[in-house]
Write a structure and sequence with these properties.
Elements: H1 10-17, E1 33-40, E2 43-50, E3 53-54, H2 62-75, H3 78-91, H4 94-131
Antiparallel strand pairs: 1-2, 2-3
Helix pairs in contact: 2-3, 2-4, 3-4
Length: about 130
């Protein structure tokens, strides 16, 4: 046993500052999306990667991370989604191609709904300005 005065505090401090090794796995995500679960001091967080883009924000649940990853895939990285869907069709993987189509439809619907909501709010604001 070492003497307390001679022992280094780096081992105690180092345990909390060690960076976790993050392993991205595909799970049930669409092919360019990979999720990682990170546990740090009894707190579980989820990260994701879309293709080579590694997102920096952490999420409290796998579902939240997946939704954010899909939103990015079908908005900012739609060219990747298109390429993946075409590749699935060339391989004859119609189930995967349909998953891409279904998720693309979902996110397009969300985007359309957001635009309709913005238009409604804009109309309401215009009416209120007219009244004042």
């Amino acid at each position: 046993m070492s003497h307390p005065a001679k022992s280094s505090t780096s081992s105690a401090v180092g345990a909390s500052t060690v960076k976790a090794r993050i392993v991205f796995e595909s799970r049930d995500a669409l092919p360019p999306i990979k999720l990682a679960q990170v546990t740090h001091l009894y707190q579980v967080q989820w990260l994701f990667r879309v293709g080579v883009y590694e997102h920096q924000e952490a999420y409290d649940s796998e579902r939240e991370a997946m939704q954010s990853a899909e939103r990015l895939l079908f908005t900012l990285f739609s060219d990747i989604a298109d390429a993946q869907q075409q590749a699935a069709l060339r391989r004859g993987d119609t189930a995967l191609a349909f998953r891409f189509a279904e998720r693309r439809g979902y996110w397009q619907g969300r985007q359309d709904e957001k635009q309709l909501h913005q238009a409604a709010v804009g109309s309401a604001l215009a009416a209120l300005r007219y009244l004042t």
